[in-house]
Amino acid sequence: MSWVGGPVSSRATCVLAPNPGPMTLDGTNTWVLAEPGSDVAVVVDPGPDDVAHLRAVLAVVQGIGARVGTVLLTHGHADHSAGAAGFAAMAGCGVQALDPAHRLGDEGLRGGDVVAAGGLRVEVVGTPGHSADSLSFVLADDAALLTGDTVLGRGTTVVAHPDGRLDDYLASLDLLQRNVSSAMRILPGHGPVLDDAAAVLAAYQQHRRERLEQVRAAVAAGAATPGAVVRTVYADVDPALWPAAGLSGRAPLGYLRL
Fold first, then answer.
1. For the domain bounded by 6-207, which CATH number is listed?
2. How far apart are CA 92 and CA 13, in angstroms?
C-alpha cells in the first residue's frame, strides 16, 4: 500500500516529498511537530531542495497557526537535508544537526539533548550506523520515535559503508530497543508509520543477525569479494538495488573482519 503522509496524531503531520524511488520508497517524510494549540512548530528533515515541497511544509505549519522554531535533521543525506537551508531562509529559523556541515546557526545536536519548542519536548538519541551522523528523536508525549533512515516504514535500511558501520548500527538498534515499548510508534524517514516499535526493532535485529550468518556462509562457500557476497546473499533482491546492497554487503564484511 502506498504512503501519502498527512496527520498521524495531534502533534505530528507528515508532508511527503515528491522524490519517490527505490531508495526513498514513496518519498522523504518531512515531519511537522507541534504541541496542540502552540504557535511554535519543529520541522524534521525538510527533504530535497524542491521549492514546491518546502512551500507545502511551510503552509502546513502556518495552517496550524504556528511559526517554525527550528529545523532538526536526522542525518545529512541529501534526500533529507538538501532543502534545509532554503527552508530555513523561508521560515526564518536555524537548522540543528549533529554534523556541523549541515547546521545553520550556533546550535548543534547530539545524543542526550532535549529540544523544547512551544511546550513540545523532543529527546535526541544518537543512533549512528546508517550514517555516522544519524540521530533519532523521541516524542514521548506522543509515544512516538522518529527514526530517519535508521528504521524505515517498509523493508530494511542500508548501512552506508564506510561512513555507516554495522557495529554502530547494531548498537543503535539495541539502544532503541531498550528505550521503547510496544505502545510506541515509529515515524520513519521513508514509508508509513509503524505500530509497536518494540516488535519492529526486534525484527530489524533478527534480520541483521540472519544477514550476518548469510555473509559468513557466502564467504565460507568461496565468495571472495563484496560483489560476490552481494550476488550470493542478495540474490532475491531486485538487481537495481544491488549498488545499495553493495554498501550493506561491505558493512558485515568489515564487522566480521573478513
1. 3.60.15.10
2. 20
